Amino acid sequence: xxxxxxxxxxxxxxxxxxxxxxxxxxxxxxxxxxxxxxxxxxxxxxxxxxxxxxxxxxxxxxxxxxxxxxxxxxxxxxxxxxxxxxxxxxxxxxxxxxxxxxxxxxxxxxxxxxxxxxxxxxxxxxxxxxxxxxxxxxxxxxxxxxxxxxxxxxxxxxxxxxxxxxxxxxxxxxxxxxxxxxxxxxxxxxxxxxxxxxxxxxxxxxxxxxxxxxxxxxxxxxxxxxxxxxxxxxxxxxxxxxxxxxxxxxxxxxxxxxxxxxxxxxxxxxxxxxxxxxxxxxxxxxxx
Length: 288
Fold this sequence. Notes:
GO biological process, one term: base-excision repair
Number of helices: 9
Low-confidence stretches: none
Number of domains: 1
Strand order of the largest sheet: 1-2-3-4-5-6-7-10
Protein name: Probable endonuclease 4
Radius of gyration: 18 Å
Cofactor: Zn(2+)
Number of strands: 10
Family: Belongs to the AP endonuclease 2 family.
Oligomer: single chain
EC number: 3.1.21.2
Helix content: 25-40%
């Protein structure tokens, strides 16, 4: 299998029910060019072991269904909180993310992304420091090939990572060993829209990503979740909608998929599976 990271490819989040080796088959069924998956249950519990048998079955399935190593990314479990007021929660979150990076390296995934969590108990200022300190600890001594990404949030309550300035500050505070891949960013169209970044027109999209480039650096943007929004601009709510059925709209997604500043990234829908095949077909059409 060749390692082929062509950009502007489109896919979605797929299930690993029955084993991670089932993900490539589902991705092919949905029409994915790339795909996202969990490596374990997002709700908790012990992760299934990635022994040689499991890895062989996974890489065999990749080949069978026409994917290359690196054509997929891994999402961390949802219960992660690096900004918690409880040190045990932070400690467990650090352990789980580092474990996910190690698992993703075995699976040869390109990226692992995570939500940073809520600073409700400590406030945003301390939350940013807790997150940056935690990521520094996660990456200490890490020599894997999978890169860690901070996912942009919708900013509901005191969730960390809803502004470009906040993400930039976190990245600036993280200390990384020589030889370790530095953390970068996973964009999410719905989260960013919920946070107040307009994505509805070509002009608005270009302005948003010029701002991203100024505050964070477009070279740090590695991938994007591609979701329409059930809620209005700046609502600070995380509510995904099928492509074209939400507040961003088809004009916005056409602009996103054809924005010159974004020509280097792939797109992953996280919409419900009832219409995700239609979402993928539509995104491919809008890409031109």
